[in-house]
Write a structure and sequence with these properties.
Elements (H helix, E strand, L loop, with lengths): L16 E5 L2 E6 L4 E3 L4 E10 L2 E7 L8 E2 L2 E3 L6 H13 L1 E16 L3 E15 L7 E8 L9 H28 L5 H4 L5 H9 L1 H12 L13 H13 L1 H6 L4 H17 L4 H21 L6 H30 L5
Parallel strand pairs: 4-9
Antiparallel strand pairs: 1-2, 2-3, 4-5, 4-7, 5-6, 5-10, 8-9
Amino acid sequence: MKQGKRLFCPYCGNRITKEYEEDILRDFCEICSVFFYDNPLPVISAILEEDRKILLVKRGNKPYKGKWCLPSGFAETDESIEDAALRELEEETGIKGRIVSLVDVDSCSNYFYGDLIFLTFEVIRIGGELSPGSDTVGVKYYPVDKTPRLAFGSNTKAINAYIKNKSDYWAIVDSFALAVDESQSLEKKKALLSNRLVDVIQENAGTIVHNWLKDITTNRSTPKYQSFDKGKLFERSHIILSQFSKWLGGVYTDKDVRDYYIGLGKEKRKEKFKLHEVLSALSLLRKHIWEFALSHGISKKTLDIYMAFELDRRIMIFFDRVTFYTTQGYLDKPKS
């Protein structure tokens, strides 16, 4: 409970008086010439999260008996705050842990304990069996977005800080799982992080095609394109890019992609393009798509860097299919 009023000096037994020290009125012993300080009590809490569920305990003692909170308690004399966090975790939940990092520091005034400083650590489990301790009557993992009202506001603040710190990481994990799982539904594919960059590409299809045309009409690897109708080239390429999100997002089936690009290969053969020029033109288009995406919307943030890698993988897979089907169409013999 809150500290009571200090009446006598613990050193000499003289009655305590009040004196100002640096404009602050403090308890003072005139005989010992000593000031006494009332400092906030240090409280430590542990956030143990598994599969986006946070371990909470139900309090068995006052204050807030029956309320949920993070595994928490006071640090003891001659005990580090890290050791205190791990001790309280084990005493209240049965779980042995290891400190990962400091999540949050908060100060508050509590009606029961007085002024407190909460220090909250992220902890990972290294052993033990989950079970309530001597001063807890329940232990349970709650989804991070469905925690009950907690006994201490500082616990709520720490959990919110933890979720904010983990949000980019969780978004990357989710997006990666979707990106590598071809069986995911079209609706779930809409959650891919790199879709933002795909939208940028689609919205700027005209600019990208214009840059690509300047390249292929001057590049030594694509001489046939230098004399070909620029209007037709722009129209065909703009169709591909304006539908880019649908190509990548699974709106079109593999059969749709195959039929379109086999048809493109046949068309290029009919127009007397050499196969290596067609493949070089596709490679240059891929380059311009990638360069434009990198220059629009990519920063040094971890999330943006991941989006770039994810987009690169999607573009690579798509253009590998495009190259294969275009080649197949080019090499297919016309039916007599």
